[in-house]
Design brief:
Length: about 400
């Protein structure tokens, strides 16, 4: 039987050290926003600033802070950190997270809470309930990391909503102690249970095998599966709605597919159903980077805005009436000239240009022929005149 680390490597392309997925980084994209978070948060400074990042992983301490705080999910977590999380979240009872400087005995102990992403917290909160100890943060002098922890907790609250957050998440502050709920075990018994490694369950909760370029979305895929599993337990009208940021499409969209091809996470598709276009997005992939909106030249996407949804699988955003091309029937711009789609308009324009070029060539040919005929006529007249002069000069001599 393969170990968790072997499965992570073979099925999810998660290695011992983080991997920077350049093709997913919005900072490298033409329409992306400038981002240097990995350079700012890495305690070892292995990420140079600039669009052409070449991380020096020889200095990496495998803390996972870069991956946990990358807004584009383009850095994979170190395999050992993922292994520890899977085992911890597979244990019975609430999921507890504390840092190495904290004396509170919890399920998962990390070097710093800044190395835990909001997606990890959300998965634990939805499936088990979450306890986070900030007791050691109050005396911590690393203000930058404290800001990252606060930001991730705010993202968690944004995703879950205030009501679910208050119900599912407990935050320990000011030396507050943690007493596990629904158990009468002693501290030693509880610790022994926490030490038990439920490998089978940890392997079962891993998402389906992923492609190498999607390795940074590992925890998002876990969160997708958790939301789906919880929703299946409830009636449709009772399912909780989670808040995520997604593109808002307008009627200007005519399926030019610029946004689809520019999306670094491949989260967008535009389908046609009868006389309507239907933009669909996979929320677990969408990071809200805004590249789709920035790349659209037709104002087909007005904003990246929060939406409440009960699933992180494919979501149909809206129906957009199709304005069909009068020539081929494909979608076109609403204000398209002569009612033609871009392809037909360009084809007609090309035909017009070719026709214009043909007319110019014919006119140029006719001009040259006329000039040639005129030149030949002039030469002929000159030759005749010369012949007359020669004949007149020879007549008296005779």
């Amino acid at each position: 039987m393969e170990s968790i680390a072997q499965l992570l490597d073979s099925q999810h392309h998660i290695k011992t050290i983080p991997t920077y997925l350049a093709m997913r980084c919005s900072d490298r994209k033409t329409y992306g926003n400038e981002c240097s978070i990995c350079s700012e948060v890495c305690p070892q400074g292995i990420y140079p600033e600039g669009k052409r990042k070449r991380p020096d992983y020889t200095q990496c301490i495998k803390c996972g802070i870069c991956a946990a705080n990358c807004p584009d999910s383009c850095i994979t977590f170190p395999a050992q950190r993922v292994d520890n999380f899977l085992i911890a979240v597979s244990k019975s009872g609430e999921m507890g997270i504390s840092c190495a400087e904290d004396d509170t005995v919890l399920t998962l102990n990390v070097s710093c809470l800044a190395a835990v992403s909001w997606e990890q917290m959300a998965y634990a909160a939805i499936t088990k309930g979450l306890v986070i100890s900030l007791n050691a943060c109050e005396s911590c002098k690393r203000e930058g990391f404290k800001a990252l922890i606060a930001e991730n907790l705010e993202k968690l609250r944004f995703f879950l909503g205030d009501e679910v957050f208050e119900k599912k998440v407990k935050i320990l502050r000011g030396g507050e102690e943690y007493t596990p709920t629904d158990t009468g075990m002693s501290r030693r018994e509880l610790f022994n249970i926490f030490r038990n490694l439920p490998l089978d369950k940890a392997m079962r909760i891993m998402p389906e095998p992923m492609q190498s370029q999607d390795a940074g979305l590992f925890y998002r895929a876990m969160l997708r599966d958790a939301v789906k599993a919880e929703a299946e337990k409830l009636e449709p009208d009772q399912r909780p709605k989670y808040r995520v940021k997604m593109p808002v499409f307008t009627d200007n969209c005519f399926n030019c597919a610029t946004c689809v091809f520019s999306c670094p996470q491949k989260a967008l598709k535009i389908l046609r159903e009868g006389d309507n276009l239907i933009p669909v997005v996979e929320p677990w992939r969408c990071t809200g980077c805004g590249i789709c909106m920035n790349s659209c030249k037709e104002q087909g996407i007005s904003s990246i805005s929060p939406m409440r949804i009960s699933t992180l699988n494919r979501v149909a955003l809206r129906k957009i009436p199709v304005h069909a091309c009068v020539q081929c029937g494909k979608p076109r711009r609403r204000d398209a000239e002569d009612g033609l789609c871009t392809t037909c308009f360009n084809r007609r324009k090309g035909e017009q240009m070719r026709e214009e070029r043909r007319r110019k060539m014919e006119a140029e040919k006719a001009r040259k022929e006329a000039e040639k005929a005129e030149k030949e006529a002039a030469e002929k007249a000159a030759a005749e005149e010369a012949a007359k002069e020669t004949a007149g000069a020879e007549a008296p001599q005779a």
